[in-house]
Design goal:
The complex is a heterodimer of chains A (661) and B (152).
Chain A: H1 2-29, H2 32-38, H3 41-64, H4 71-76, H5 83-88, H6 94-115, H7 121-145, H8 169-197, H9 203-234, H10 245-270, H11 274-296, H12 303-308, H13 311-334, H14 349-379, H15 388-408, H16 423-443, H17 448-465, H18 478-503, E1 505-511, E2 516-519, E3 522-533, E4 537-548, E5 554-556, E6 559-564, E7 567-572, E8 574-578, E9 581-590, E10 596-604, H19 608-660
Antiparallel strand pairs in A: 1-10, 2-3, 3-4, 4-5, 4-6, 6-7, 8-9, 9-10
Helix pairs in contact in A: 1-2, 1-3, 1-7, 3-6, 6-7, 6-8, 7-8, 7-13, 8-9, 8-11, 9-10, 9-19, 10-11, 10-14, 11-13, 14-15, 15-17, 16-17, 17-18, 18-19
Chain B: H1 6-31, E1 36-37, H2 39-44, E2 53-59, E3 65-66, E4 72-78, E5 84-90, E6 102-109, E7 115-121, H3 140-151
Parallel strand pairs in B: 1-2, 5-7
Antiparallel strand pairs in B: 2-4, 2-6, 3-4, 4-5, 6-7
Classes of the chains: A alpha+beta (661), B alpha+beta (152).
């Protein structure tokens, strides 16, 4: 019954998407007759959001009670699985995660329809029509090629389980956050299209678009940060970013959204960069969909596997072509009719923002080509792996100038500025960078990129706070604090990355119980190794005593786990976190003479990578809060003003009327 | 700057940067095209000493030996011909690293002709095969080698 209800809700939502498109398109015509029908666009979006979310919760329920008559549950869950992983298993598979995607898409469409009152009614109609059109494509994808509610002819006796790597709290957080980000960009896309169609690309539109972009961007940042930390402690290799295509799939929308975020701010504040903002809006959502295609079509496992069972992949590819092609076509037709915005010189804040926008786009191009190239060559039967030796230097070519301009940009004035005015700041930052480079170069022999990274990180960390210089801190707007925080977060994350890659110490040894190893100022003693059992796995667990200097030792318990449903082996790392770094231990196999392989890393400041990610997100949140508060204040001021005028009109009206009597 | 042409200038600058990115990417990717090697390819045209590459093939039966330190492992990787590449790896072996099964070694060729692996990718479980090794096991590997040879 639950499954049928869920499916019915999805079909109803699809029907409402049709209504939303029709009503939105009629709203564009603007005559009185159409207007009567056009009012249905908003309710259609709101009810649709309710239905799609309901459908997702029904699937969640089916997973919670392990309803083995549903195919998806039977193939992805197991009655013995811990309850929390039963729930998170809902989106640990293709159909469930697509339902989550669609649910979030409908929800954001509903929120937009229900809450946004500032836009002109026509622009809103166009926006809702586009949003409905996007939703319709994904409903069709879900219903026609990946029905999550499909029943089994005969209920299964037991489920087949969930990939043990995915049985982790990281999975509970990571995909939903990322999806909110991906799909939040769909609203930015619809708004951009709506404004383009109705020729309303102006600061007012940018002010409406900005919170949506910020919101999506905050979630993308959080999702990437969580995903990176998850890979770091779960995969047991000690790395935090692998340039894996799945990771790149989330990085690309983030890069585009970061560029969009800054350009929409320029549009809102200065009425410049009109077409550029629209273009980035299209690009950001295209990258979201491309990411979904890469992850969901199976094209990554093998192009040939994709060619054998191309249904889903082709479906998303068609949607991709339809939406990107359609929006670019509208862009080509309309871009010429959008008047050029306000002008600015190269040495102005706009100039710096444009420069970094271009750098971000260039990095995006590097990542995109590097991700697609292996797929392309594989189609011609040449297998190539593209890894860090490509991404790191090629990305750095554009990232380094970007970080430099990022340090200087916020110090410049809008429209036009003289570099001479910020001479002191420029000299200060250059001095810091040079000092760091020479200091680190004296201390040891490090690779060039980590060295530059450290110098830029510290200079950027200082530069992030320079815009506050000479201002009264209590009067600085919340949104400016948001910018300072986010830029400082970038510096913190960059510092963590550079420090991890320059200073990591590693110790790898075969140790017998009772013996001691030294790593930096850490002393590690293997106490013993014991077999243990969990709810759906067995493992060998090492007890390692780790002591730093003369401190009391801490017990570390790295495990090598064997899951039995489905059969798979994983390695569980054990961590000790200190403010200045992390100790990371993994246990390996037993050697023939009875010793155990132990691999330990000391990673100085590695945690800064994720703290930085959190700070960046926090900056985004502050910025949203600041803007929304400002907006509410303005609204209430306008309301009060109107009230007063009305009152005045009444009084004066009376005054006028009275003498007439 | 003539105000009239500002938008055009911006577009041109942006295009130049993006095209530069594209060119850099293409150039870097082409120099990376040999990043993945089969043993016979590595024997015929060895990569430069120290260049980061991947070597993929089968672990030769009876070739795995652990050194006295209990950490360093020597083994040989075979492909579809008689060529074998000796590999040295220090680290925790992947869980399903066994003889006569597929492996991808990341690392670089040493001056002594031994491939120094910094990371090994093997099957995580029965169903997972490293991307590069797909279709390389059993007799399929022959077909695959022929198609590779055919394209070169």
């Amino acid at each position: 019954m639950i499954a049928e209800l869920g499916l019915a809700a999805l079909w109803l939502a699809t029907a409402l998407a049709f209504l939303q498109i029709a009503a939105g398109v009629l709203g564009l015509r603007g005559d009185a007759h159409s207007a009567r029908f056009a009012v249905y666009a908003r309710p259609a979006a709101v009810v649709q959001a309710f239905l799609a979310v309901l459908s997702f919760f029904l699937l969640l329920y089916a997973f919670a009670v392990t309803d083995l008559s549903i195919k998806l549950v039977a193939t992805n869950s197991h009655s013995m699985k811990p309850f929390i992983y039963k729930l998170t298993g809902t989106w640990g598979n293709h159909e469930g995660s697509m339902l989550l995607w669609v649910g979030v898409l409908a929800l954001s469409g509903g929120l937009l329809a229900g809450m946004e009152k500032r836009l002109p009614e026509k622009t809103m109609s166009a926006t809702l029509a586009v949003q409905g059109f996007v939703a319709l494509g994904f409903y069709a994808f879900l219903l026609l090629s990946s029905n999550p509610f499909e029943r089994l002819p005969v209920p299964a006796a037991e489920g087949t389980g969930l990939n043990p790597l995915l049985q982790d709290i990281g999975l509970a957080v990571h995909p939903p956050t990322l999806y909110v980000g991906y799909v939040g960009l769909s609203v930015a896309f619809s708004l951009a299209m709506g404004a383009l169609i109705t020729r309303q690309v102006n600061p007012d539109f940018a002010k409406v678009m900005r919170p949506w972009v910020l919101f999506a961007w905050v979630f993308l940042t959080l999702g990437i940060t969580a995903g990176s930390y998850w890979a770091y402690y779960e995969l047991g290799w000690g790395g935090w970013w692998f340039w894996d295509p799945v990771e790149n799939a989330s990085l690309m929308p983030w890069l585009a959204a970061t560029a969009l975020l800054h350009s929409v701010s320029v549009l809102a504040a200065r009425d410049a960069l009109r077409t550029w903002t629209i273009m980035l809006g299209v690009l950001a959502f295209s990258m979201s969909m491309l990411g979904t295609f890469l992850v969901r079509s199976g094209v990554l496992t093998s192009v040939h596997a994709f060619a054998v069972d191309p249904e889903r992949g082709t479906f998303i590819l068609v949607l991709l072509a339809l939406y990107i092609g359609g929006s670019l076509a509208i862009f080509a037709v309309r871009a010429g009719s959008i008047a050029e915005g306000k002008r600015f010189t190269f040495t102005s804040r706009e100039g710096a923002l444009v420069f970094n926008n271009v750098m971000l786009s260039a990095i995006l191009a590097i990542v995109l080509l590097g991700t697609l190239y292996p797929l392309l060559t594989e189609a011609f039967d040449v297998r190539v792996s593209v890894g860090p030796p490509y991404f790191n230097p090629a990305g750095a070519i554009f990232a380094i100038p970007m970080f430099i301009v990022m340090a200087i940009g916020p110090l410049l004035r809008w429209k036009d500025d003289k570099p001479k005015r910020i001479q002191f700041e420029l000299c200060l930052l250059a001095a810091i960078a040079i000092a760091v480079v020479s200091l680190v170069a004296i201390l040891g022999d490090y690779a060039i990129l980590p060295l530059l990274g450290l110098a830029l990180a510290i200079a950027l960390g200082v530069a992030a706070f320079l815009p506050l210089r000479g201002r009264k801190l209590s009067r600085v707007p919340t949104a400016v604090w948001g910018m300072v925080m986010a830029h400082f977060g970038v510096a913190v994350a960059l510092f963590g990355m550079a420090s991890e890659s320059a200073f990591t110490q590693e110790r790898l040894a075969a140790v017998s119980p009772g013996s001691t190893e030294q790593l930096g100022d850490w002393t590690l003693t293997l106490e013993g190794v014991e077999p243990i059992a969990g709810p759906n796995w067995t493992a060998i667990e090492a007890r390692v005593l780790a002591a730093r200097g003369n401190e009391d030792p801490i017990v570390l318990t790295p495990q090598a786990r064997d899951f039995w449903a489905p059969a798979q082996a994983t390695s569980e790392s054990a961590l000790i976190t200190r403010w200045d770094g992390q100790l990371y231990a993994v246990i390996g196999e037993q050697t023939e003479d009875g010793r155990w392989q132990l691999r330990v890393w000391w990673k100085p400041f590695v945690t800064f990578i994720w703290y930085g990610g959190l700070l960046i997100s926090l900056g985004g949140v502050l910025s949203i809060v600041g803007r929304v508060r400002l907006d509410l204040k303005r609204r209430s001021a306008v309301r009060k003003g109107n009230q007063r005028r009305e009152d005045q009109a009444k009084i004066t009206g009376k005054v006028q009327v009275e003498p007439a009597e | 700057m003539k105000a009239k042409h500002q938008r055009l200038t911006l577009v041109v600058l942006a295009l130049i940067a993006i095209i530069a990115a594209g060119l850099i990417a293409t150039w870097a990717l082409r120099s990376q095209a040999n990043y993945f090697y089969l043993p016979e390819q590595m024997a015929a045209e060895p990569p430069e000493v120290g260049q980061a590459v991947r070597l993929g093939g089968m672990v030769q039966a009876g070739s795995i030996e652990t050194m006295a330190d209990g950490i360093t492992v020597n083994f040989r990787v075979t492909g579809n011909t008689a060529d074998v590449i000796p590999v040295r790896y220090s680290g925790i072996l992947p869980d399903l690293f066994v003889e006569e099964s597929g492996v991808v070694a990341e690392g670089s060729l040493g001056a002594d002709g031994v491939f120094e692996a910094t990371n090994l990718l093997a099957k995580h479980d029965e169903n997972y095969v490293p991307r590069e090794l797909e279709g390389l096991e059993g007799h399929q590997s022959q077909d695959y080698a022929e198609t590779v040879a055919g394209t070169e």
